[in-house]
Amino acid sequence: MPTYVYACKDCGHGFEIYQSFDEDALNVCPQCQGTLRKQFNTVGVVFKGSGFYKTDSRSAGSEQTSSPAPAKTDTSSPSAAQN
């Protein structure tokens, strides 16, 4: 069951409550009998890992928008220049 957060418009009392999707929203404050309002929080979704968008949102045959950077060669040592 989801957790909903309510706050009273009159006294400022806030609380959380577990409610089913089928239940009606609360509208009376349990402390002062004032008007309640439902507060909305951020969604608890976290996308972890690299490449989520690339691997899950595109088809396998689509073209990539960015290409990897070309490999750099080390020319600072004399032996690297002779190879």
From TrEMBL:
Region annotation (Disordered) ranges: 53-83
Positions of the Putative regulatory protein FmdB zinc ribbon domain: 1-41
Segments of skewed composition (Polar residues): 58-83
PANTHER family given in the database record: CONSERVED SERINE RICH PROTEIN, REGULATORY PROTEIN, FMDB FAMILY
Protein name in UniProt: FmdB family zinc ribbon protein
